[in-house]
Structure formats: C-alpha cells, structure tokens
Write a structure and sequence with these properties.
This protein is of the alpha/beta class and 237 residues long. The chain has two domains: 2-92, Translation factors (Elongation Factor Tu (Ef-tu), domain 3), CATH 2.40.30; 105-233, Nucleotide-binding domain of ferredoxin-NADP reductase (FNR) module (Rossmann fold, 3-Layer(aba) Sandwich). It contains five helices and twelve strands. Keywords: 2Fe-2S, FAD, Flavoprotein, Iron, Iron-sulfur, Metal-binding, Oxidoreductase. InterPro entries: Cbr1-like_FAD-bd_dom (IPR008333), FAD-bd_FR_type (IPR017927), Flavoprot_Pyr_Nucl_cyt_Rdtase (IPR001709), FNR_nucleotide-bd (IPR039261), MRET (IPR050415), OxRdtase_FAD/NAD-bd (IPR001433), Riboflavin_synthase-like_b-brl (IPR017938).
Length: 237
C-alpha cells in the first residue's frame, strides 16, 4: 500500500511521531500490532537498508491515517523521513504481531509496564479503548529518566481522567527537583509496591530487550505465570 507523509509531531526532544495519510485506502489492524515500511530510496546511508518495522501508535479509530512514534537516533531511514517533505510517498505492508488483546480479554485486569519508547503500542490500545467507550481495567507503570522524557504525557493523563478503570503511574529514575510522582528503578521493590499479588492479572511488558527480559524475571519471581506475561521487545533500530 502506498501512503504519504502527512505530519510530524515532536513528542519529546528526541522522539517524533510520523503520521501518514492513507489516501482513502483501508488499512485494517488491531491496536498493538506492528507495520513494515519501505522507502523508495534513502537520502542518508543506512547499513540496515530501506526497510523498518515499527509498532503502530495510532488507533484504528483515527480514520484515514496510520502513525508510528520513534526515537530519532543515528538512522539513515529515520533521517530520510525526518527531512522528507510533507507528501513524501512510501510503501507499507500488512500489519502483523500478537501484542494485542485477544477475544474475551477486555474483562480481565491488566498491568501495562513500559520503558521509554515502549509506550507506543499502549497508546494505540488505550486510545482505541477510550474512543470506543470500552474501558479496560489497567494499571500502567511507565518508566522514564525524567518528566521531559514522558511520551504522550498529556494524552495519557487525559485518558486516565476519562477512564476511571485506567490508573497511570509515571516512574522516574532521575527525577528533577519538585517531582511529586513515583520514582525509582524497575526492580522487585517497586513492582511489589504497586502489584502486591500477580493473581488474576495479565502482564504486558514493552521496551528495550534488556528491560523486557529483566522485568519478565522479576514478575516470575513475584509468582506470575509465564502464560500471563506478554512481551514486546523494541530492538535498536
């Protein structure tokens, strides 16, 4: 499918959302899935070539567009898109991935754990839930270095106010002076503080591979069953 760059949204100092116009075409996907993109040509060298996959950060309820959100760091692929003119055309393929709500899971209690850019699939899931008036029972622990690094902060806080069953906890590892929220690193202590028991919970973990692996081990130490832990590893792209 051919799509066109519609908008760039600067989410934080080094994170940008790329919004693409579908041109009236239908792109069917489920919140939490990924999408593969291919550029016709690179304007900057990239040893990994002209193809990438990203988690979809938009919701199917946002008609006519698809969006991904990424950290801009030393990638010819991303730099090409960052400097491309509005209207720039590229190709996307069929959505895929299983980091999604399965049938019957909307009635469960969920724990979303995100590190940095790992928040993107959750934005898709939560935006869809809010727009469809199908509130999920979710506790979200979102880890960042500082408050300036919190991606989608205003939108997430707005959705937490809109959906009483959605509890958002922003956790900073290097909080600035005056921060009144939660602070600390991702460890057993902070997980146990917010999750006294894993019984009856479905855990979702999204972020860098090291963070995801460490979090899975901590959850298993707490007694979470392997089948109740769903993961999405963001590779260094």
């Amino acid at each position: 499918m051919r799509i066109r760059l519609k908008e760039r949204r600067h989410e934080t100092a080094d994170v940008t959302s790329f919004v693409f116009d579908l041109g009236g075409q239908q792109l069917e996907y489920r919140p939490g899935q990924i999408l593969n993109y291919e550029l016709d040509a690179l304007s900057f060298p990239d040893e990994r070539g002209n193809r990438r996959h990203f988690s979809i950060s938009s919701s199917p309820t946002e008609e006519g567009i698809v969006m991904f959100t990424t950290r801009i760091r030393g990638s010819g692929f991303k730099e090409t898109l960052r400097q491309a003119p509005i209207g720039y055309e590229l190709t996307c393929e069929t959505p895929e991935g299983e980091f999604i709500l399965q049938q019957g899971e909307t009635r469960l209690r969920h724990v979303f754990i995100a590190g940095g850019i790992g928040v993107t699939p959750y934005r898709s899931i939560l935006r869809y839930s809010a727009d469809m008036y199908e509130p999920l029972n979710v506790l979200m622990l979102y880890f960042n270095r500082s408050s300036a690094d919190i991606i989608f902060r205003q939108e997430l806080e707005s959705m937490a106010r809109q959906m009483p069953t959605f509890s958002l906890v922003n956790v900073l590892t290097e909080p600035e002076e005056g921060w009144k929220g939660e602070q600390g690193k991702l460890d057993y202590t902070i997980l146990h503080k917010w999750i006294p028991s894993p019984d009856g919970l479905l855990f979702w973990v999204s972020g860098a591979p090291s963070m995801v692996g460490a979090c899975r081990e901590l959850l298993e130490q707490m007694g979470a069953k392997e089948q109740n832990i769903r993961t999405d590893r963001f590779m260094g792209y």
